[in-house]
Amino acid sequence: MSEVTNLDCKRVCDISADKRMVEIRRKDCVTRITANPDGTLNVVQERDGTKVT
Q: I need a surface site. Which of 6, 34, 38, 52 has the fewest CB within 10 A?
């Protein structure tokens, strides 16, 4: 995964090597956005190991 930073040089998200998944982490919350072959997106949110969609 490669790190993406904003203009303040703060980490915003990570992008997978194949550029099909973005992971955003804020405190104990993780949001994973993945691209499907048909162009739609899957958004999965997790907190402390609990999935919320």
A: 38
Q: What's the pLDDT at 48?
A: 75
Residue 52 lies in a domain: no
Residue numbers of the domain that contains 39:
2-47
Which residue carries 């104990």 as its tokens? Answer: 28
Q: Per the structure block, which two tokens stand in for 2?
A: 């490669």
Q: What is the pTM of this model?
A: 0.78
Tokens at residue 29, please? 């919350």
Q: Is residue 34 in some structural domain? A: yes
- 39 SS3 class: coil
In a domain, 26, yes or no: yes
Encode burial over 32-43: b for 16+ CB neighbours within 10 A, e otherwise: bbeeeeeeeeee
